[in-house]
């Protein structure tokens, strides 16, 4: 199959052809090897790679070093409500969700964090960092900050739904507010989420309270904007 020689850059024309062909493939399928695709379209591998780059940036493909390039599903929609939990909400939609605990540390609370969590100056926080995977693919990094007074309650947490863990121990939480923004990822975030460093992240800062209305958790989630969408009920 040969591409036409139009004024539009050849790699974009090739990207359009591949974009159409992806409609007939299933999430998880691998593209043929670059050398095969380049030969099929009669282009060099540099042009082929630029076309694939376009689809990676659009969230249609995922490059996995040493494995190949996989077709991704459409962006996931997370229904954000006051009492919704990340893992439970997406599991209810039929997705396989996993949460891995990456780090546990105690650190000083910032001025902003003390204000949200109503802590005194000099207060310490327990911070848990989790990686959320959906269908085995990394989608979100979340930093959960708690006053250290909750450290004994969280001592046994090793992964999985943090909301469910707390609820089972008598502390169900309700989301008070969420601030949604966007930015570029850090080098570490890009590596963890297996995404290009120049692709956007969605960031969501959330304050959650217990049944008595006391602030308990301040979380900051960073998610691949091409893989994740938030749905707000108004």
TrEMBL record:
Coiled coil: none
Key word Transcription regulation present: yes
Listed InterPro entries: Bact_HTH_transcr_reg, Chorismate_lyase_/UTRA_dom_sf, CP_lyase_PhnF, Tscrpt_reg_HTH_GntR, UTRA, WH-like_DNA-bd_sf, WH_DNA-bd_sf
NCBIfam families for the chain: C_P_lyase_phnF
Name of the molecule in the record: Phosphonate metabolism transcriptional regulator PhnF
Ranges where the HTH gntR-type domain occurs: 8-74
Listed PROSITE patterns: HTH_GNTR (PS50949)
Entries under Pfam families matching the protein: GntR, UTRA
Swiss-Prot/TrEMBL keywords: DNA-binding, Transcription, Transcription regulation
GO molecular function, one term: DNA-binding transcription factor activity
Membrane-crossing segments per the record: none
Signal peptide segment: none
């Amino acid at each position: 199959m040969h591409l036409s020689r139009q004024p539009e850059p050849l790699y974009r024309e090739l990207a359009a052809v591949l974009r159409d062909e992806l409609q007939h493939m299933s999430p998880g399928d691998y593209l043929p090897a670059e050398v095969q695709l380049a030969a099929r379209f009669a282009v060099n591998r540099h042009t082929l790679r630029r076309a694939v780059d376009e689809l990676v940036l659009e969230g249609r493909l995922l490059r996995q070093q040493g494995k190949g390039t996989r077709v991704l599903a459409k962006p996931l929609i997370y229904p954000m409500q006051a009492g919704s939990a990340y893992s439970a909400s997406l599991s209810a939609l039929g997705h396989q969700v996993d949460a891995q605990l990456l780090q546990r540390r105690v650190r000083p609370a910032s001025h902003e964090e003390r204000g949200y969590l109503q802590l005194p100056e000099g207060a310490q926080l327990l911070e848990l960092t989790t990686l959320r995977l959906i269908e085995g693919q990394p989608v979100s990094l979340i930093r959960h900050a708690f006053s250290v007074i909750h450290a004994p309650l969280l001592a046994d947490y090793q992964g999985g739904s943090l909301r469910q863990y707390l609820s089972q121990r008598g502390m169900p939480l309700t989301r008070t507010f969420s601030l949604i923004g966007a930015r570029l990822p850090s080098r570490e975030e890009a590596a963890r989420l297996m995404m290009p460093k120049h692709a956007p992240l969605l960031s969501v800062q959330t304050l959650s309270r217990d049944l008595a209305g006391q602030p308990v958790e301040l979380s900051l989630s960073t998610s691949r904007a091409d893989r994740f969408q938030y749905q707000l009920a108004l």
